Amino acid sequence: MANSLEDRVLAYFHTAGLRAGDVVPSELELASELKVGRPALREALGALEVIGIVQSRQGARRTLGTFDMGAVIRTLTIGIVPDLQSLRSLLEVRRVLEVGFFPQAAAKLTPQDVAELRSLTDTMQEKASRGEVFVTEDQAFHAAIYHHLHNPILWGLLEAFWELFDNMGAETRTGTNLPETAAAHARIVDALVIGEMALASHHLNSHFFDVRSRLVRQSTTQSPAKQSPDKQSPDKHSPDKQGADQ
Question: pTM of the prediction?
Fold first, then answer.
């Protein structure tokens, strides 16, 4: 019932010609138009608020918002079991997205963007030398690469994965080689500086494969009964060993 009513509410908004920022009709009016009870309508509106289609502020009428892909993904991932297998699955989706969009994103980077990326990697390396994690700089680095695409769906997906991967994967940082992780990011910038986009993409891909390899090693360590150390095989899919990050 909830999903059906949400669809009807959206159809009504469309028919009424409502756009982002417009005031949504009152619950009484909507309930009358859709011939439903107010409790059911309130539940449907609440579900639409979760994904940003309807916005509500205390003391003000509801307004029509914009679709928030990040909110949708965060809602869908609430039930994911926080284990290393889930982390590897999320990482693979993130890798496919970032590597797939990298050529288009890199082509739009300005000299100022590249300078910002260099500054971020310098900070990463400084923190790494002191044994400090650099999650903020890591996320800012990836955000700086893709921000010119102005793709809200891509951005929402990446933002949701960063948030979930960070929340689920705090324990995985214990195996991170901080200096190598920082160097992996620096290699991407080095390639961008000399205009070698394919090489930069290769370093980005390698970077994600190293993270995956680390998660595989940790999973094996936590489940020794499933696979003994002498039977472990190297990750044949990894193009090389270039770095690891969170």
Answer: 0.67
